[in-house]
Amino acid sequence: MTQSSDADVGSLPLYPMRLAIELEIPSDIQYIEQVVELVTRQCEQLSFTARHCALNVPVALTEALSNAILRGNGENTDKHVRLRAHVDHDSLVMEVADEGAGFDLEDCTIDPTTGENIDREDGRGLFLMRRLMDRVERFTDHGNVVRLTLRRE
Amino acid sequence: MSFAIKKQGEIVVVDVEGQLIVGNRQELKQKVLDELEKGEKRFLIDFSQTGYIDSSGLGVLVSLSKKIREQGGELRLANLNDDLKTLFELTKLDTLFQIADTRERALESF
Questions:
Q1: Are A114 and B49 a contacting pair, CB within 8 Å?
Q2: On the CB side of B63, how many CA atoms lie within 13 Å of its CA?
Q3: pLDDT for B48-84, tens place per residue?
Q4: CB distance B23–A30 less than 8 Å?
Q5: What is the domain class of B2-108 according to CATH?
Q6: pLDDT above 70: residue A6
Q7: Nearest CB to B22: which of A66, A119, A127?
Q8: pLDDT by residue (tens digit) across A30-62?
Q9: What is the DSSP string of A21-66?
Q10: What is the spatial distance between Cα B16 and Cα A151, in angstroms, rounded to a whole number?
Q11: Which helix (H) or strand (E) covers residue A130, if one does?
């Protein structure tokens, strides 16, 4: 077995690389799985942990996209949802923007684990996003934006 | 992603293949409700071929659990991988459902 040479770029670790994704989808929940797969695949290639790639990223991003499509844009397919994802050596940052009026993150997050909420069908989306990401922020920037940040372990 | 339903004795077994998320949760709900309407009482949902589940998917499981109980039936879950177990623990839904490590154990538990 030979040692890899400088020319053997295929064996270089992708860890130090930076990657940016920007895409826009119509407000249709059927797009979510494809978008999530695209981002998760990049995280796998850039050496995020298996747990991050199988749980934290797909679930949190699915929640953000479905909130944007269903609540932000009211499933109006004339309206769009924009995703910007940025991966570097330190973290993954995903910004999901919709055309809605926005919401108060604190007011809208409920604790679904309490006795009175545990058998509710809804109300776990924001809770999961906040438990699975290191940081969740909401702000206005040409629309309503939710920013999810996940640091590498 | 799809849902395969088959009968194993008196138990309706549903395999969730792929994700259980906002885009397909209604399909699972309707398939199980159709069986419930036919008079089936015992349900096992097997997650051995499942990727991830979002809050909508969890919500459907909660809803189905209630509807099945209301009809005097029982619902069991089986084969959650470590990531899915974490999801159930985070939301404390592991306290709401009867969850078995294997399909066989779940079938025996009815």
A1: no
A2: 16
A3: 999 999 999 999 999 999 999 999 999 999 999 999 9
A4: yes
A5: alpha beta
A6: no
A7: A66
A8: 999 999 999 999 999 888 999 999 999 999 999
A9: EEEEEES-GGGHHHHHHHHHHHHHHTT--HHIIIIIHHHHHHHHHH
A10: 31
A11: helix A125-132
Q: Which CATH number fits domain A19-151: 3.30.2170.10, 3.40.50.300, 3.40.50.720, 3.30.565.10?
A: 3.30.565.10
Which residues of chain B lie closer than 8 angstroms to A58, CB-CB? 19, 51-52
pLDDT at A3 over 70: no
Q: How far is A62 from chain B (nearest CA, A)?
A: 7
Q: Do B87 and A125 touch (CB under 8 A)?
A: no
Sorted by where each begins, the domain ranges of chain B are: 2-108
For chains A and B, count residue pairs whose Cβ atoms are closer than 8 Å.
74
**ipTM given for this complex:** 0.95
Q: The whole model's pTM is what?
A: 0.92
Residues of A in contact with B90 (CB under 8 A): 128, 131-132
How far B56 CA sits from the closest chain A CA (Å)? 7
